[in-house]
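Appendix B. One record, verbatim.
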Amino acid sequence: MQTISKSLKRLLSALILSNIIFMASIVYLYLDNKQNINAERININDASGKNRIVIANTDNIPEPIVAGKTYKRAYAPAGLIFYDKNGDERGGLAITDNKETNLNALAFDYQNADAIGILAQDNKHDNYFRAGLVINDKDLSGKPGHNINRINLITENGNAALVMKDHNEIPRIILKVDSVGNPSIEMFDKDGKLNWKR
């Protein structure tokens, strides 16, 4: 009887020890992975179920929605998209990496189109690069995707410029420092013809 009890005791001790190790492993794995969430798309919805924020990879990024209608996206970026209470896109962060270029942008939108954007682009097959700030007026026609580009603060291939345009998107004043350090101020007439330079 005593030998059975010693064997049973050892077996129970081994089972308890293995259960403790097993449970500790599960707790460790749970706590270790709790810091990471792996997903291809995360939707953050409001109480009505409408998307307010979407985080997605390039395969799962949603098409833009403006005035309740879905449009085709020019590029499929990975990123973060903001939506208003109606479910319309209102801006976001886009990281685009395709065969030709890397284009990254942070944008905030009017109700129908881009309002302001920060961008960085560098091409893969040539030395073209640019980075800047783009500010648009709202196109009051209400056409989705339309806006009026008014101000660009940009560096492009080493040339830094502040470009101010009229309501027809014609550059009227350009303050520039070129890639070798030469500053200039240019003024244009309503048809885009240069009428003053210094």
